[in-house]
Design goal:
Helix content is 73%, strand content 2%. By secondary structure, the protein is mainly α. It has a two-stranded antiparallel ribbon with strand order 1-2. Strand 1 and strand 2 form a beta hairpin.
Length: 287
């Protein structure tokens, strides 16, 4: 016997409520065990929050067009950024924009490519492209506020560990780490990987494949972990770091697809790079 449309709706609503209850439990319970130094648990909470808070579901059918030219663009830009990240990783291109000998505003001037290529690509699409990429609505603002609370709890729960381990951190060094977390890493990588690379991939293949490929490329752009694995062997810490990077890639690409804004992705990325931790340390140092 088939269920009526009303009964089906009640069943679906019940399932949705159960999922939301489980998801909310994750958000509330996981911070209790936030001794996770790799920040995998906060990322699980972030992924959960993404699907609870951002209710709007976009159903745009992405048109696959100019497949060959976009594939060439995608391949060339990925190759260039891999060269840049590799050279920074081996310490060859490190003389960038530095002030007070500690605050690195840009590790190498070749990083300008990582900022300018996505911006140019957005502007080329249409006049509102870049504006939409940094748009903010009620749902994404709510997401950001909840996310700030989650990471603030995480940072405060470990503040004694931070202050013991990083008691010798200078004010300049704390400022340097904040800039690294939000500007050098978060802004540059979200612009390039989610804003540019992911959007170009959607012109070549479908959304799901684009999300997977973007996450893989993002994960293996972290040559510092690869060098550590070569020097010291593939340790459990390196494995956990890779898991955290994969999780960050998954969360940000889904968040961007749901919100159509890079702003929450940048904030999440910066928070996950311990930007809030160093902000707290900076406030304590200044106080």
């Amino acid at each position: 016997m088939e269920l009526s449309s009303n009964n089906k709706k009640e069943v679906n609503d019940r399932k949705t409520n159960i999922i939301n209850i489980i998801a909310c439990t994750f958000i509330i319970v996981l911070p209790v065990i936030y001794t996770d130094i790799f920040r995998i648990l906060p990322l699980l909470s972030a992924l959960t929050i993404t699907y609870i808070v951002i209710e709007k579901q976009y159903t745009t059918n992405y048109i696959i067009k100019n497949r060959f030219s976009n594939l060439m663009l995608f391949t060339a830009s990925t190759f260039i950024i891999y060269i840049i990240y590799y050279m920074i990783g081996v310490g060859k291109w490190t003389n960038g924009l530095v002030i007070n000998k500690e605050i690195i505003l840009m590790p190498t001037y070749t990083m300008i490519f990582v900022y300018l290529l996505p911006i140019g690509w957005f502007l080329k699409q249409d006049r509102e492209g870049l504006k939409r990429a940094f748009s903010l609505n009620k749902e994404t603002l709510k997401y950001i506020i909840i996310l700030l609370v989650v990471y603030l709890f995480h940072s405060l729960s470990r503040i004694s560990v931070y202050m013991t381990k990083y008691s010798d951190i200078t004010t300049n060094n704390a400022i340097h780490m904040i800039i690294q977390a939000f500007f050098v890493a978060a802004l540059a990588e979200e612009l390039f990987f989610r804003g540019y690379l992911y959007n170009v991939l959607k012109r070549i293949t479908n959304v799901r494949k684009s999300q997977i490929i973007t996450t893989i490329i993002f994960t293996f752009s972290h040559f510092n972990l690869l060098f550590k694995a070569i020097d010291n062997g593939f340790t459990f810490n390196i494995f956990c770091n890779y898991v955290a990077i994969i999780m960050l890639g998954i969360v940000t690409v889904h968040l961007y697809e749901k919100s159509r804004s890079l702003l929450p992705c940048i904030i999440l990325h910066g928070l996950n790079n311990e930007g809030l931790k160093y902000l707290i340390i900076l406030i304590i140092n200044v106080a």
